[in-house]
Write a sequence for this structure.
């Protein structure tokens, strides 16, 4: 069914246009000046005093962390490994397919309320591996309607054969414009050479993996295998085109050459890096090599707009220079994120142009200073991104958020998740003396 947004100010990280209309069904059919609009008898959405933008993309999430907020487990980490052992591995050890489903549904609702319409997720669930990605897709994509690219983070902490089966089956069985798969790996220090060899013989998909998130990953691999994480993955032919390498804080110069040669992508997760005290990524060493960098948030929140802020500000801090990383660099990273998701999903995301997907968000915004094409990103960075809450969201032309709320059925399921999360906490706290079989 065709719809039309009228009286819109539009901004798609490339052009700002005022007094526009957008005609769309599942894709954008036409845009233009209001004075040229000739369409009557269509469902009309009035975007007066509002800004219309493409839906945002989260390039690296961890939906399994949804029910971690406020969890009171013993926690006094002295290094990055202990952060994983004391918090995240204790959490994911108890995740069932039911928890995965409700985590995804809750996250999906909160992503929509933050203007995120596509998510690339990196999943872990120790109780149920098989079927976990379908459970995730049901909550996130089938029910909340968010486009998704999913994988299971294979690790020697889990049953390797089940991890491989789950990744391969999901990748092979999900090739729509709403749901795709990658092959997930946790990190090099939790994967033996035997495991990597087994994966290399069974996987054809690009990998999605944590790389050099802390110095521990690098040091462990060099000490035990004589190679950096990137060189280990490349040794087994795992870094294919469109592989997604998260973090990459400590990659070496020859690692960069491998990433470039394999046409892999790097995803920054700046806020998480700050929270874990592991350091900050350096955009220029990747950009100077011609390596595409995209933006994720590592599951630390339901917002990606907040991540844009922290990327921008921390690169200034890294450079000790406000000019070296500018608006153009941030725009390039955002564009890279749209392009990566577009290629995997085989759609066109991220522009308000004919032929692009009708993944659109509408935000109330009254600019009290001049708003034009040259300063639109500045209005976002120093205004809207600090409270980025759309009132309306469309995905594939379907209105999935109206007046800042999802539909009644989804709201009901959203509140049902409370009972599941309470039981989940109970299981975690009962098992607080759980000891890991593997120490890395």
């Amino acid at each position: 069914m065709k719809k039309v947004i009228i009286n819109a100010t539009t901004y798609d990280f490339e052009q700002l246009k005022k007094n526009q209309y957008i005609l769309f069904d599942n894709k954008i059919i036409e845009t233009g000046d209001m004075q040229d609009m000739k369409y009557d008898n269509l469902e009309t959405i009035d975007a007066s005093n509002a800004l219309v933008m493409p839906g945002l993309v989260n390039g690296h999430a961890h939906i399994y962390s949804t029910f971690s907020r406020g969890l009171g487990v013993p926690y006094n980490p002295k290094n990055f490994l202990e952060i994983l052992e004391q918090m995240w591995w204790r959490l994911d050890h108890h995740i069932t397919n039911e928890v995965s489903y409700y985590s995804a549904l809750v996250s999906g609702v909160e992503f929509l309320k933050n203007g995120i319409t596509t998510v690339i997720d990196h999943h872990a669930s120790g109780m149920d591996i098989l079927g976990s990605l379908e459970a995730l897709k049901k909550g996130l994509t089938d029910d909340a309607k968010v486009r998704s690219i999913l994988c299971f983070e294979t690790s020697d902490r889990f049953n390797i054969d089940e991890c491989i089966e789950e990744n391969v089956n999901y990748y092979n069985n999900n090739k729509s414009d709403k749901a795709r798969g990658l092959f997930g790996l946790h990190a090099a220090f939790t994967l033996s050479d035997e495991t990597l060899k087994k994966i290399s013989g069974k996987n054809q998909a690009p990998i999605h993996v944590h790389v050099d998130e802390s110095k521990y990953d690098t040091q462990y691999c060099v000490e035990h295998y004589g190679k950096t994480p990137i060189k280990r993955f490349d040794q087994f032919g795992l870094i294919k085109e469109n592989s997604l390498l998260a973090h990459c804080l400590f990659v070496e110069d020859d690692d960069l050459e491998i990433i470039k040669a394999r046409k892999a992508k790097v995803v920054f997760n700046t806020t998480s890096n700050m929270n874990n005290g592991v350091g900050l990524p350096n955009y220029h060493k990747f950009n100077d090599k011609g390596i595409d960098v995209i933006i994720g948030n590592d599951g630390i929140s339901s917002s990606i707009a907040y991540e844009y802020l922290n990327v921008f500000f921390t690169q200034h801090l890294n450079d000790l220079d406000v000019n070296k990383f500018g608006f153009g660099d941030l725009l390039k990273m955002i564009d890279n994120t749209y392009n990566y998701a577009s290629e995997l999903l085989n759609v066109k995301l991220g522009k308000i142009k004919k032929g692009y997907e009708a993944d659109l968000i509408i935000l109330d915004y009254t600019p009290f200073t001049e708003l034009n094409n040259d300063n639109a990103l500045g209005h976002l960075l120093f205004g809207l991104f600090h409270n980025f809450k759309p009132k309306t969201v469309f995905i594939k032309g379907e209105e999935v958020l109206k007046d800042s709320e999802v539909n009644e059925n989804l709201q009901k399921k959203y509140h049902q998740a409370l009972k599941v999360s309470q039981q989940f906490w109970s299981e975690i706290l009962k098992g607080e003396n759980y000891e890991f079989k593997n120490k890395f």
Observations:
- The CA atoms of residues 223 and 417 lie 44 Å apart.
- DSSP finds 14 helices and 17 strands in the chain.
- The mean pLDDT is 93.
- The chain has two domains: 3-54+352-401, 56-345.
